[in-house]
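Assess this one:
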Amino acid sequence: MLILLILAAVIPSLILMIWFHKRDANPEPQAVLWKTAGLGVLAAIPVVAVVLFYNNRIEAIESPLWYGLMSAFFSAAIPEEFFKFIVLYFYAARLRDFDEPMDGVVYGVAASLGFATIENILYVTQSGFGVAILRAFTSVPAHALFGAVMGVFVGKARFPGERSRFFLFQALAWPTILHGLYDFPLMANSAAADRQFDGGVSGYLMLLVPAVIFGSSTWVRRKVKKLHSAQMTLKNTG
């Protein structure tokens, strides 16, 4: 049973990794991709340390909305995206194989899915197949999309240009904002239920979850298509 649960937690990440890898006209070495994903797994260690530091302070917040907002950003989005950025920028972006903007997307997804996989294993082994199915269509794709967004901007910043610092800022800012907005209604709703908050949390707030996924996926698909087309143009004219 445990093996099946672990497989259910890992397979969504593998499928997404393969999908993004196939979009790359000049595929990256698999060994390097797996190492990037492995570093994404290790990024969970400092994230846990940050979360433990903030948890006591955040738990004292009575309002479910404020709790959800602070928890979404300070216990999830900020530390998770920061340490994924460390992996992408200070390891992957300095590789010899990172030689074109599309590589930022592929390595960004690898780092994010490495983290998402270990997180998913922890949730699924504790809560079962129902959670595995739910997360396969929500949080795991969300992590991949946030990694892709980060990778687009790191890919732009990696090569000489006047706006490289601005792109690096966006590489960290946009995934953090999207991640925080995604988690905010979920955490606020959970806090309202746990504390039996009168009136709960507005159902309209939950619309942020599909809105973030839809908006991110639309933007990422468009950028990936553009980067892939640029790769093919270079191949055909090279």
